[in-house]
């Protein structure tokens, strides 16, 4: 309905925007499947089960990741795949190996970014016990926002999602390269790899939280 009324969205066609949608929803669905343990981490703290993880030989990140898998999220993943296939079939861009690799890297990077946000939200449980609903602004809200080309938003929003939570490295700048849009650069294909580094400080914050964790004592 949106594109039927206006034709395009600030220079982006229906299929180009659908490509944004498919990439970000696939990344979010994959992160939900495999990083759901962090989303429900507060239950481990409240019940005292996290104490048991601390005495096991495996790292806490690996154990929390393995504590819960949400394969029921496959429906959301299928939706993202369907939209991505429809977008690729409707685009007239000339595909190369580098462009295909960049697309895969975008999905992987988005997965790391969403997983990093889940980890940050879980880390807050060490101090607040319950997961802060504020994190949903950057998970669900980030997904909804990044399913559109980010240049439609104000510059302040663009800067935040470039230098703080790097969604721009996932679905905007690399897409300029894939779609041969003005302002694109061959170096844009490397930006998803840079965006995936977002998970590194998230893991460091997690380690700080683990060191400050006080046992339930039960």
Q: What's the N-to-C terminus distance?
A: 57 Å
| Number of beta-strand segments | 0
Class computed from helices, strands and strand pairing: mainly alpha
Tell me the overall shape: elongated
Largest sheet: none
- Number of helix segments? 16
Radius of gyration, taken over Cα atoms and rounded to an integer in Å: 19 Å
Order of helices and strands: HHHHHHHHHHHHHHHH
What is the topology?
Blueprint: H1 2-6, H2 14-34, H3 36-39, H4 41-47, H5 49-54, H6 60-65, H7 74-90, H8 97-123, H9 125-128, H10 135-138, H11 140-146, H12 155-163, H13 168-171, H14 173-178, H15 191-196, H16 199-211
Give a quick summary of the entry.
The longest helix is centred in the middle third of the chain and has 27 residues, at 97-123.
Describe the structure.
With 218 residues, the chain is mainly alpha-helical. It is built from 16 helices and no strands. It has helices at residues 2-6, 14-34, 36-39, 41-47, 49-54, 60-65, 74-90, 97-123, 125-128, 135-138, 140-146, 155-163, 168-171, 173-178, 191-196, 199-211. α2 packs antiparallel against α7 (74-90) and α8 (97-123) runs parallel beside α16. The longest helix has 27 residues, at 97-123. The radius of gyration is 19 Å and the shape is elongated.
What key attributes describe this structure?
mainly alpha; 218 residues; elongated
């Amino acid at each position: 309905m949106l594109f039927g009324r206006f034709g395009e969205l600030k220079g982006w066609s229906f299929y180009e925007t659908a490509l944004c949608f498919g990439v970000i929803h696939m990344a979010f669905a994959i992160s939900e499947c495999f990083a759901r343990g962090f989303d429900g981490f507060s239950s481990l703290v409240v019940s005292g089960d996290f104490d048991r993880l601390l005495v096991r030989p495996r790292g806490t990140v690996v154990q929390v990741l393995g504590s819960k898998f949400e394969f029921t999220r496959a429906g959301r993943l299928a939706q993202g795949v369907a939209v991505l296939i429809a977008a690729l079939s409707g685009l007239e861009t000339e595909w190369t190996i580098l462009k295909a690799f960049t697309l895969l890297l975008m999905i992987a990077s988005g997965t790391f970014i969403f997983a990093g946000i889940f980890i940050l939200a879980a880390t807050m449980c060490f101090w607040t016990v319950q997961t802060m609903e504020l994190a949903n602004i950057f998970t669900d809200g980030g997904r909804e926002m990044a399913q559109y080309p980010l240049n439609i938003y104000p510059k302040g929003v663009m800067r935040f999602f470039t230098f703080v939570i790097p969604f721009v490295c996932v679905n905007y700048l690399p897409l300029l390269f894939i779609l041969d849009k003005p302002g694109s650069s061959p170096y844009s294909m490397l930006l998803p790899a840079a965006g995936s580094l977002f998970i590194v400080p998230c893991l460091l914050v997690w380690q700080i939280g683990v060191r400050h964790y006080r046992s339930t004592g039960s």
